[in-house]
Amino acid sequence: MSTTEPQELSATGVAVLGLVALMGEATSYDMKQAAQASIGNFWSFPHSQLYAEPQKLAERGLLEEEQEEGGRRRRVFRLTETGRSTLRSWLADPETPPVELRDEGLLKLAFAAEAGDDELRVLARRQQEIHREWIEHYEGLAQHLAPTGATRFNRAALEMGRRYRRVSLAFWRDVETLDDTGEMPTIETHNDAPMKTDLKREDEHHAR
Predict the structure, then answer these.
(1) CA geometry: angle 181, 183, 186, nearest 5 deg
(2) Which stretches make up the Transcription regulator PadR N-terminal domain (predicted)?
(3) Which residue in 65, 68, 80, 208 has the most C-beta neighbors within 10 A?
């Protein structure tokens, strides 16, 4: 395909173009490794698609492909002019689909009237453990990314995930102590003392 006009892409196609743009050139295995350490933390998709999608994009003229002559004869992909134009066109569009939230912990909480208080507290404590593990995971990833250059955007995306987990951690702490009134502290952005106290406590926990 010789046109240099931007083309319509699936979300996986965009992910592939973005990963190749970040790395300059990449094999499907390289993309899989990079996705696991970056976008895979907030954008879920079968990583097996990273082996089929690059070939499709190459056939559309969005990637160029070069196969090694010796060794493992890996296929290395690079952005074409059309591929870069398509990626930039997608980035220039500020519209995004509504965010889908599928959290089984919240689903169980919604039906918790059928369970006892003990079961609810066990659920709340387990959810706190999960969110702490994710916070540590995000912080570990951020340590390997420089705060300048192109990686500053990767760090910003990871920070969003970290903040989401910290807010969720504070939420499940409140659920654990929920009484018969059902009253929970409200969270007002930038002005919530209970939330600030929880986040400060979590920072102190990680600093030790």
Answers:
(1) 175
(2) 17-88
(3) 80
What's the token pair of residue 182? 């059902």
Tokens at 185, concatenated? 């502290």
Helices 11-23 and 81-92 sit at what angle, rounded to 10 degrees?
Answer: 120
Q: How far apart are CA 45 and CA 32, in angstroms?
A: 11
- In order along its 208 residues, the chain shows pLDDT tens digits of 445 555 778 889 999 999 999 999 999 999 999 888 888 888 888 888 899 999 999 999 999 999 877 777 789 999 999 999 999 999 999 998 898 888 999 999 999 999 989 999 999 999 999 999 999 998 888 887 766 666 778 788 888 999 999 999 999 999 999 877 777 777 654 344 444 444 455 555 555 5
Q: Which helix (H) or strand (E) holds 78?
A: strand 75-79
| Bridge partners, 64 (sequence order) | 78
Output 4-10 pairs: Cβ under 8 A, ≥24 positions apart.
Answer: 4/81, 4/82, 4/85, 5/82, 5/85, 6/82, 6/85, 6/86, 6/88, 6/89, 6/90, 7/60, 7/62, 7/82, 7/86, 9/62, 9/86, 9/90, 10/53
Q: How far apart are CA 146 and CA 166, in angstroms?
A: 22
Is the CB of residue 41 less than 8 Å from the CB of residue 161?
yes
